[in-house]
């Protein structure tokens, strides 16, 4: 062992076993191991024995109790030599004076070189580090004691240095405070020394060395620690200039104002920031064990001008629990734990231009018991302060990806319409399928299954399928923008319908039982849109046209061995495709561009039309004034080269020299 403590293990049942330790069991005359007996104890000289019993294994710990500090002047109870302890130990395990096991230990322990004692309170005078090294031995960190691996430490005796002589610190920290530098003339023997080195080398003593700069800290700057908080003021005294669409709303504590929202994975995130001018309506499932309260409603919101506004909160009690409690895992009993929680929160932001003027919050509370599943609802709506209708939107009038497409039925007294696709549930039957609105910019494909009997009339089947598909399109027009007004017909585009059957086309009625051709089972919705501008840097997208068409299939009854009194299934689908077109037709290529492709910058690495690009205002790598000056200087050199290459200039120059 080389340390003051060592562990070993005794395997077997230690009940009734006596452990003892014997120091120096070797006979000094013969050099042989002495015959051990079981009369020892758990302490011998400077050694202690400790046993921790277990089930079938016991841990045996041998510890040294003496001081291992190296002796200082006029000190006792210490180590006089670096090799402090050299002993042989024997650990015995006996039961009823019968030896069961023996362990022989050879201990060689060196003294501890760390300093223990009183440190002088006298202040150390540190020289100017710019002109003198801090010390001839920087690794000498402990006063009155030897620092390990510091070979220049004067407190280290030769015996101690032998322990780490091959691992000494190198470089400046190890005491080489004035190493020869490469620019010194005496360092010419360095490999790859250039021929002009003797003319430019430095002749100086090692006392004046550039390595002194290693100890010179000079003027320092404190690094800025990045913060997770976003500063609203870019400079002192400059107020926040308002929100832009999509900016996170901030609180008085300069933190995000958060409301639970759904992530891309469909799960609810409790600390999701609320974005300016972006409405949402989400539902989150929770139970009593995982329920967490959101931000308190007394948090003040930054209005966008540096002022803070308080939320106007109205609390209401839920009367119909069935709309929120979707499942009960166990019947209610008197011992069931219940808690008053938030069932729904509706936020209405009243805004004007880039600022928030008022916040109205309606909170619905109810009792949630253990074992119940709660469907929480959170809604956020932004309204314009100057709008006469609460349903009127503002901000970027164009569509944003993921927002419902606005539809209208201009042939009805109630002009609001809908443009939907199916959202199947359960077995996927059309009778139980629900509707979900068409979302802008997101292509989708959905459908359901219609039950059809073997004796189904083909004409009635076509009419039934067409009626199911037409139920998705309860509109005659689609809004060009997300804030299209129902009173202005120019804000809407008419839906182009391609009927599945023309009056001039003869539709087969189907003469075979169980087979019906020309069934319009597929509804195709094509929406053409374009970028027509930008609002605050966000593209403004408008719908240009909407077309609805049908695709027909041949339906055939499918059955097993017996087809009587059974029904087959007809899948009907609806697909939505968004097609983006340029706002303006692209400029057609000229004949020169089509024939001489080497001048096309998009097809070649060398672009001759951009030869003078660095001197144009499109180049932003340098200030325009510098680029112009460099361009004029280059033109002057070119003109000078042309003049000097002229033979007349050579004759004039020769005559001038004569």
From TrEMBL:
Keywords for the protein's UniProt record, in alphabetical order: Cilium biogenesis/degradation, Glycoprotein, Signal
Domain Tectonic-1-3: 241-384, 398-581
Tectonic-1-3 N-terminal domain span: 114-221
Entries under Pfam families matching the protein: DUF1619_N, TCTN_DUF1619
One of the record's GO cellular component terms: MKS complex
A GO biological-process term: cilium assembly
Similarity annotation: Belongs to the tectonic family.
Subunit structure, as described in the record: Part of the tectonic-like complex (also named B9 complex).
UniProt name for this protein: TECT2 protein
Organism field: Baryphthengus martii (Rufous motmot)
């Amino acid at each position: 062992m080389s340390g003051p403590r060592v562990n070993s293990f005794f395997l077997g049942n230690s009940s009734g076993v006596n452990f003892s330790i014997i120091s120096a069991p070797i006979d000094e005359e013969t050099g042989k191991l002495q015959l051990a007996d079981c009369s020892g104890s758990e302490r011998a000289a400077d050694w202690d024995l400790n046993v921790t019993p277990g089930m079938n294994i016991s841990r045996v710990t041998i510890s040294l109790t003496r001081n291992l500090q190296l002796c200082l002047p006029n000190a006792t109870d210490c180590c006089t030599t670096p090799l402090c302890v050299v002993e042989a130990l024997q650990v015995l395990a006996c039961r009823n004076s019968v030896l069961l096991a023996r362990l022989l230990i050879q201990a060689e322990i060196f003294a501890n070189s760390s300093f223990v004692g009183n440190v002088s309170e006298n202040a150390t005078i540190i020289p100017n580090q710019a002109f003198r090294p801090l010390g001839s031995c920087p690794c000498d960190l402990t006063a009155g004691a030897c620092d390990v691996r510091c070979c220049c430490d004067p407190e280290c005796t030769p015996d101690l240095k032998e322990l780490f002589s091959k691992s000494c610190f190198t470089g400046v920290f190890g005491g080489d405070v004035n190493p020869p530098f490469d620019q010194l003339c005496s360092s010419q023997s360095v490999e790859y020394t250039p021929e002009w080195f003797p003319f430019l080398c430095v002749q100086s003593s090692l006392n004046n060395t550039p390595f002194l700069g290693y100890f010179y800290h000079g003027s320092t700057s404190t690094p800025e620690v990045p913060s997770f908080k976003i500063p609203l003021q870019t400079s002192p005294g400059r107020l926040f200039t308002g929100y832009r669409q999509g900016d996170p709303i901030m609180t008085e504590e300069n933190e995000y104002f958060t409301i639970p929202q759904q992530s891309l994975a469909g799960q609810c995130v409790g600390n999701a920031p609320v974005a300016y001018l972006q409405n949402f309506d989400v539902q989150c499932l929770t139970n009593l064990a995982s329920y967490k309260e959101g931000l308190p409603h007394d948090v003040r919101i930054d209005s966008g001008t540096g002022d803070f506004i308080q939320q106007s909160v109205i609390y209401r009690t839920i009367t119909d629990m069935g709309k929120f409690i979707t499942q009960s895992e166990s019947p209610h009993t008197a011992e069931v734990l219940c808690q008053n929680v938030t069932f729904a929160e509706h936020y209405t932001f009243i805004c004007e231009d880039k600022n928030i003027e008022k916040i109205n919050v309606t909170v619905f509370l109810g009792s949630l018991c253990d074992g119940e599943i709660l469907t929480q609802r959170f809604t956020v709506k932004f309204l314009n302060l100057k709008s006469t209708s609460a349903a009127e939107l503002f901000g970027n009038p164009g569509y944003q990806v993921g927002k419902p497409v606005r539809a209208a039925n201009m042939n009805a007294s109630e002009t609001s319409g809908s443009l939907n696709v199916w959202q199947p549930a359960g077995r996927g039957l059309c009778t139980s399928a629900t509707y979900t609105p068409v979302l802008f910019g997101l292509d989708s494909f959905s459908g359901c299954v219609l039950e059809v009997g073997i004796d189904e009339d083909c004409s009635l089947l076509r009419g039934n399928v067409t009626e199911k598909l037409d139920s998705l399109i309860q509109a005659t027009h689609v809004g060009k923008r997300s804030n299209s007004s129902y009173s202005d017909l120019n804000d809407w585009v008419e839906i182009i319908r391609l009927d599945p059957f023309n009056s001039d086309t003869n539709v087969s009625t189907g003469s075979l039982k169980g087979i019906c051709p020309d069934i319009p089972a597929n509804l195709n919705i094509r929406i053409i849109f374009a970028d027509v501008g930008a609002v605050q840097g966000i593209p403004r997208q408008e719908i240009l046209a909407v077309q609805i068409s049908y695709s027909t299939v041949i339906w055939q009854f499918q059955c097993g061995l017996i087809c009587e009194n059974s029904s087959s299934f007809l899948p009907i689908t609806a697909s939505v495709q968004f097609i983006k077109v340029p706002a303006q037709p692209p400029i057609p290529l000229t004949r020169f561009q089509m024939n001489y492709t080497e001048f096309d910058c998009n097809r070649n690495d060398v672009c001759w039309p951009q030869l003078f690009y660095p001197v144009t205002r499109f180049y932003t790598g340098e200030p325009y004034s510098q680029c112009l000056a460099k361009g004029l200087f280059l033109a002057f050199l070119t003109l000078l080269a042309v003049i000097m290459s002229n033979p007349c200039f050579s004759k004039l120059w020769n005559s001038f020299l004569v």
